[in-house]
Each structure stands twice: as C-alpha cells, then as structure tokens.
C-alpha cells in the first residue's frame, strides 16, 4: 500500500474517533463530501501536520461545501 493510502486510512480513523462515528458512517461521509480525493491531493501538506489540524482542516473543507442558508 502506498504512503498516501496509509495516510488516508489514518485520516479516516482519527476522524472517526474524534466525531464518534462508525466505520461505515465515516466512509459514507468522506465519499459524500469528496474528502478522500481532497486528502490524497493534499497529502504532501497534510501528512506533516498534527492530528487536531487534520480534523479541523477536514471540518473546514466540509463547511465550505455545504449550502449557505
């Protein structure tokens, strides 16, 4: 498995734990918002950051993609 693939799994796991989600829920969530592609495309920058930063960055990514109302 590539380093990027391992990092994606790490991101899934830390996000799942932080948000108290099941594996199925977090995978569905990542797919719905395109987080998987985002994490893989930003691997070089994200893999050098800490756990809290990654979780916050994913939250900001999701927030930017939600409709404003």
Short note summarizing the structure:
This protein is an all-alpha fold and 69 residues long.
Give a verbal description of the structure:
With 69 residues, the chain is mostly helical. The chain has one domain (3-64). The protein is built from five helices and no strands. Helix 1 packs across helix 2 and helix 1 (3-18) crosses helix 5 (51-65). It starts with a helix and ends with a helix.
The rounded distance between the terminal residues' Cα atoms is 41 Å
What does the main sheet amount to? none
- Beta-strand portion reads under 5%
CA radius of gyration is 12 Å
The SS-based structural class is: mainly alpha
How many domain regions? 1
Low-confidence stretches: none
Bulk shape: globular
Number of helices: 5
Q: How many strands appear in the DSSP assignment?
A: 0
Percent of residues in helices: over 70%
Mean pLDDT: 95
Order of helices and strands: HHHHH
Essential attributes:
0% strand, globular, 5 helices, 77% helix, single chain, mainly alpha, 69 residues
Write the layout of secondary structure elements.
Blueprint: H1 3-18, H2 23-33, H3 35-41, H4 43-46, H5 51-65
Helix pairs in contact: 1-2, 1-5
